[in-house]
Amino acid sequence: MVTGGSPTTAGFWYDVTYNRKLSPPAQTTPYISYVGAPGGPCPGQIGTITEFDESVDTDLTKLYGSINPNFLPRDPSRGCAPVYPHEYLRVNTIFEVVKAHGGYTAWTDKHPAYEWTNGPSGQGVDDFFGPEINSIPVALPFPGCTSVPAPDTTPDDGWTTDLRNIQCYDQTHVQAVLNQIHGYTHDGSHSAPIPTLFGTNFQSVSVGEKLAGNGYLDVLGTPSTGLLSELDFVDNSLGQMVSALKDAGIYDDTLIIIGAKHGQSPIDQSKRVGIGGGQPATLINTIASGEVFDISDDGSLIWLNDSSQAAEIAKQLSTSANQATLGIQEIFAGPALKEKFNSPLTDPRTPDIILKVNTGVIFTGGSKIAEHGGINEDDMHVALLFSNPEFKAKHVKTYVLNQQVAPTILQSLGLDPKELKAVQIEGITPLPFLF
């Protein structure tokens, strides 16, 4: 949404993946034991889990944190220098383009590691704010947030285990945007230009879709009481932003975009099938030699220690018994994968195997009722709303992509969308009907 690129050009598959050419971090994070990439020799060990989420925080228990370079993967080709998130990105971002044309930029997101929005230059976002969503909840100076409704002292669970807590967390994002509209930095400490391009990320609806006892009530997507409260919170927050834009006298000149990075599956809770036990890696380890790394929420990205085994493993996974065990609907490997993405034999970031699973399958042994990361309709058919007083209401049913958001933003600012490298490479066009 900020590059116009897919994983083939941007190089990001997820915030935790595997890279066949990088080396492990110098130090293992002390807060995450279930996925933390082990510290290892560089360049002696080539190939590592690549984490750009809370795992690289200096102290993920703290809401306001920073990145510890010792927790970052290292690049043997650059003297084992740590690889920062923005350095991992292969293409530029809309923030870099806008800044290059004299604009002031700002962005607020859920991890310090999401500074990758700066782009490869590391300078794209003038005012970046990334409070850690997986930190231990604390009291905040917002209505209803002066005490923690459901304290959770477990690192990495964070604000996402309680509907009210996540609203309090999101209010840190809302306040940052309001401060920026009023002509200050995100924390209100210094005067700053009102950004040319800025925005934030909400987590409340996502949590409302996932927490047990909430989600949707039926196949039509009727929200539960809990999820409805999260939707109302976001709606009211957007209203505060609109009011602030009007107070600042810039509402008529502002294009507001409300989108979603992904949906959650399943909407129909009766389809939920929880598959735990460390799958699918546990199953693959019984039929493959060497290490297997996967990221699986409601789909699976799988990296093999030996990519030459991909065809045989895909064949084994396609047996009736194994497809039933993992809830597999479709397997992408070999030619089927290379038709859509870079070959894992030439791109060190591309998974060897991708599993599309049956709607409702989520890889969890816990109580979550939905997840994201797959390629089913519930994941990919997401909201996208453009708003400006000059627009007449219209529901566009033409198939569009989130990749088109970035070039559309540049075109709305009178800039050339082709200044985005991914747009050039992939031939992405601005959204129709707007201009």
Explain what you see.
The chain has 435 residues and is an alpha+beta fold. It has 2 domains: 1-261 and 382-435, 3-Layer(aba) Sandwich (Alkaline Phosphatase, subunit A); 273-362. The chain is 24% helix and 11% strand. The chain has 13 helices and 14 strands. It has helices at 7-10, 85-88, 94-100, 163-181, 204-210, 225-247, 281-284, 310-317, 320-326, 335-338, 377-380, 405-412, 421-426; strands spanning 16-19, 48-51, 74-75, 81-82, 106-108, 127-129, 256-259, 273-274, 292-296, 300-304, 328-332, 353-357, 361-362, 384-387. The strands form 6 sheets. Strands 9-10-12-11 form a 4-stranded antiparallel beta sheet. A hairpin with a 5-residue loop joins strand 3 and strand 4 (81-82). The radius of gyration is 22 Å and the shape is globular. The mean pLDDT is 94.
* Approximate strand percentage: 5-15%
CATH architecture of the largest domain: 3-Layer(aba) Sandwich
What is the global morphology? globular
Record field, number of beta strands: 14
Helix tally equals 13
Multimer state: single chain
Low-confidence stretches: none
Instruction: Report the end-to-end length measured between terminal Cα atoms.
Output: 19 Å
The chain-level structural class is alpha+beta
Radius of gyration: 22 Å
Strand order of the largest sheet: 9-10-12-11
